[in-house]
């Protein structure tokens, strides 16, 4: 029966790998890889750069909504992406904050020391600001940030990145001596909290479409705390030396977008629910007389589900297979050598306590962005359930049965393979099933680092306030978990009862 268990596991893993590999390797040769952060405007700017290159005959791919500033910056330096939109204030006060004279030296000089270069700005600044619902601000007579001092009980919610960055909440709180505590949450969800009255004050991006849509009051920064955040494209200097024609083409976007332009484009994407590809295509056609018809979006739910399902299966399948190769032998060792077992279980248990998003980010400096760091993180999360159940199943076999096997003259290997593993197989299978279900849920976070999967439509849905997109990722993830549980339950019926 133990052979049945391991054949089943092997077939599942092989099937998952084969299914997902069918969609791999479709990139054309040496495409330009454009990245963007996980918010509406950054995705739009990344799409503009990508479509411009494609329209001019340069192969390009857009790795959209990869996460926050630090993730994109590290990915650019590593070479995982070639170009991405950033903001001058973020560069000076966050990404280059440790550089001497970061706030005063010319930006080109600061970037050159990091091997990075920048194109001239797009033409607009998207600054940080603090905002309130107009009726609430009017009722409390708040027009300036300093007015918040008179209302210590106000509930303030800011984006998670703003909550910790050098030019964000800590500096603002100190500059204005604000008494309130701030809560971190997703930037797009903060607007809901403000409108529904759960929050009183949130941080804004001044080109957000929601400011006018929700009739928000932008508080005057009366102590001039926030710097200007001019949007521009960053690229690696050594990469540009080999692709000067790409840099020349991208320069066509410099000076093309005003604050009014970008606010309108953000509104089309966020409020009118037009896909970023469509919004970018319309702008390039109207402003630069480009009509990249071959990249116009064509909605195909079946194709999108196939792609995200394949990506999800690949991450789960490969990580599970690798975890089985390590966790099963370690589980046997832990059962046979209790002292070593306690150490092994302690180490794997410690890994399990690391928050999943933190573990994903920890992998980026070592492995870059994309599928590989997501697989490695999922591999670590798979170890403990499999290892612990293997150890528990083998340790739970009665001493009488073990003594009988010894009396029959069976070798240690024969006892393990013919008696102990079959008797422990139900417990081992339960651990594998638990690890698989955990992986299916955790794998959705891989979209934050460009791994794709069901997390991609979920994150896009949160960013665009689109319940349909969220369900496009959430429902298949739930169904996949049910299918996996059903398959394991079918196998479990054929296994012998535990001793």
Q: What is the rounded Rg?
A: 27 Å
What is the total number of structural domains? 3
Tell me, what's the shape? elongated
* CA(first)-CA(last) distance: 14 Å
- Helix content bin: 55-70%
Can you walk through the features of this model?
The protein contains 22 helices and 10 strands. The chain has 499 residues and is of the alpha/beta class. Helix 15 packs antiparallel against helix 16, helix 15 (301-336) packs across helix 18 (371-395) and helix 21 (455-464) packs antiparallel against helix 22 (467-493). It is 59% helix and 9% strand. It has a 5-stranded mixed sheet with strand order 7-6-8-5-9. A 3-stranded antiparallel sheet has the order 3-10-4. It has a two-stranded parallel ribbon with strand order 1-2. The chain has 3 domains: 2-21 and 300-493, Orthogonal Bundle (MetI-like fold), CATH 1.10.3720; 32-123 and 229-295, Periplasmic binding protein-like II (D-Maltodextrin-Binding Protein, domain 2), CATH 3.40.190.10; 128-218, Osmoprotection protein (prox), domain 2 (D-Maltodextrin-Binding Protein, domain 2, 3-Layer(aba) Sandwich), CATH 3.40.190.
């Amino acid at each position: 029966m133990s052979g049945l268990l391991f054949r089943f596991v092997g077939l599942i893993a092989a099937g998952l790998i084969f299914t997902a590999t069918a969609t791999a390797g479709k990139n054309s040769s040496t495409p330009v890889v454009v990245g963007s952060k996980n918010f509406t405007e950054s995705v739009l700017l990344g799409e503009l750069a990508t479509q411009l290159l494609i329209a001019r005959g340069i192969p390009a791919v857009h790795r959209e909504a990869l996460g926050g500033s630090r993730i994109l910056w590290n990915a650019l330096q590593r070479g995982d992406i070639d170009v991405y939109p950033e903001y001058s204030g973020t560069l000076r006060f966050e990404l280059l904050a440790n550089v001497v004279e970061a706030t005063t030296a010319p930006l080109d000089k600061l970037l050159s020391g990091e091997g990075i270069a920048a194109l001239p700005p797009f033409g607009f600044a998207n600054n940080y600001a603090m905002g309130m619902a107009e009726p609430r601000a009017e009722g409390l007579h708040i027009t300036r940030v300093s007015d918040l001092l008179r209302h210590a009980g106000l509930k303030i919610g800011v984006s998670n990145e703003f909550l910790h960055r050098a030019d964000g909440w800590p500096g603002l709180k100190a500059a204005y001596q604000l008494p309130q505590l701030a809560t971190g949450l997703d930037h797009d969800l903060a607007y809901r909290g403000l409108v529904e009255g759960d929050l009183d004050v949130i941080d804004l991006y001044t080109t957000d479409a929601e400011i006018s849509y929700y009739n928000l009051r932008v508080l005057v920064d009366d102590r001039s705390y926030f710097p200007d955040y001019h949007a521009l494209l960053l690229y690696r200097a050594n990469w540009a030396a080999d692709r000067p024609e790409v840099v020349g083409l991208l320069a066509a976007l410099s000076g093309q977008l005003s604050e009014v332009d970008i606010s309108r484009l953000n509104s089309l994407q966020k409020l009118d629910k037009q896909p970023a590809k469509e919004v970018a295509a319309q702008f390039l056609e109207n402003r630069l007389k480009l009509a990249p018809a071959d990249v116009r979006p064509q909605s195909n739910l079946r194709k999108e589900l196939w792609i995200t399902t394949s990506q999800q299966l690949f991450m789960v399948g490969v990580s599970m297979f690798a975890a089985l190769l390590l966790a099963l032998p370690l589980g046997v060792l832990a059962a046979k050598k209790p002292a070593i077992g306690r150490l092994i279980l302690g180490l794997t248990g410690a890994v399990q306590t690391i928050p999943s998003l933190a573990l994903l980010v920890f992998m980026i400096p070592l492995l870059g962005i994309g599928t590989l760091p997501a697989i490695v993180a999922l591999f670590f999360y798979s170890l403990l359930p499999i290892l612990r159940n293997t150890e528990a199943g083998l340790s739970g076999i009665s001493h009488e049965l073990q003594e009988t096997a010894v009396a029959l003259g069976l070798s240690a290997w024969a006892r393990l393979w013919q008696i102990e593993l079959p008797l422990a197989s139900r417990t081992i299978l339960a651990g594998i099933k638990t690890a698989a279900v955990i992986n299916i849920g955790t794998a959705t976070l891989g979209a934050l680092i460009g791994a794709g999967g069901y997390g991609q439509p979920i994150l896009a849905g949160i960013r665009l306030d689109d319940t349909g997109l969220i369900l496009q990722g959430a429902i298949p993830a739930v169904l996949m978990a049910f299918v996996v549980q059903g398959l394991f339950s079918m196998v479990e019926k054929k296994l012998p009862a535990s001793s």
